[in-house]
C-alpha cells in the first residue's frame, strides 16, 4: 500500500469499518510507527488492481500504440496491446502449469511478440490439392415421350415403355419401385 493520502468514492463500502494499518512516519527527524485508518474501498482496490497494474506495466514495455489524431485508432492499438499482453500472460501460466523443470524457459515478452509477429506474417499453408475430377456419372432424367426400355427389350420383354433415360448413355431404362433397370444396366458394365 502507498503511504500517501488518496481520495476514493464508493457506493458499496462503508466510510470506515475500523480497519487500520501500521505505517512508518518521520516526525521531528525520527521514524516512528503509527496506526493509520484504512477504508475498505482502499483494501478492495489494492486486492483487485494488482493484475491491472501488472498488465499496464507489461503494455508499457512494448506498446504498438502510434500517435494518431483518430480516437478509434488509439482505441484499436490499445486493445491490440491488451490482447497481446493477455496471451503472453496465458503463455507464462500454461508453462507454469505444465510443471516440467526440464522444459525450456517460457518466452520473454519480447521474444513472445517476435514469434507472434512471425507466425502472423508467415506463409499460409498452401491450399489442399484439388480432388480428383470424377467423370460425369450416369444420371436418370425423364421426358414426356415414353420409349421402350432397352434392358427389358434385351431380356425379351418389348412392351415396357418408360419416360426415364440415362443422360450419359442416352438409353431409355425403366425405374420403378418393383424393377430398376437403370441400376441393372449400369452395374452390368
UniProtKB/TrEMBL annotation:
It comes from Dissostichus mawsoni. The lineage of its organism: Eukaryota, Metazoa, Chordata, Craniata, Vertebrata. InterPro entries: PGBD (IPR029526). Residues 3-88 form the PiggyBac transposable element-derived protein domain. This is PiggyBac transposable element-derived protein domain-containing protein. It holds the Pfam family DDE_Tnp_1_7.
Amino acid at each position: 500500500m502507498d503511504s500517501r493520502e488518496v481520495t476514493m468514492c464508493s457506493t458499496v463500502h462503508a466510510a470506515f469499518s475500523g480497519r487500520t494499518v501500521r505505517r512508518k512516519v518521520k516526525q521531528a527527524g525520527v521514524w516512528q510507527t503509527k496506526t493509520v485508518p484504512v477504508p475498505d474501498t482502499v483494501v478492495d482496490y489494492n486486492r483487485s488492481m494488482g493484475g491491472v497494474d501488472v498488465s499496464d506495466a507489461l503494455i508499457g514495455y512494448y506498446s504498438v500504440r502510434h500517435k494518431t489524431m483518430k480516437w478509434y485508432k488509439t482505441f484499436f492499438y490499445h486493445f491490440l496491446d491488451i490482447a497481446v499482453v493477455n496471451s503472453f500472460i496465458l503463455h507464462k501460466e500454461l508453462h507454469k502449469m505444465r510443471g516440467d523443470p526440464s522444459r525450456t524457459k517460457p518466452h520473454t515478452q519480447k521474444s513472445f511478440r517476435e514469434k507472434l509477429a512471425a507466425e502472423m506474417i508467415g506463409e499460409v499453408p498452401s491450399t489442399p490439392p484439388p480432388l480428383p475430377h470424377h467423370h460425369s456419372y450416369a444420371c436418370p432424367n425423364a421426358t414426356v415421350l415414353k420409349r421402350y426400355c432397352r434392358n427389358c427389350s434385351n431380356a425379351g420383354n418389348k412392351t415396357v415403355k418408360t419416360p426415364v433415360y440415362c443422360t450419359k448413355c442416352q438409353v431409355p431404362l425403366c425405374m420403378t419401385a418393383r424393377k430398376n433397370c437403370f441400376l441393372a444396366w449400369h452395374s452390368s458394365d
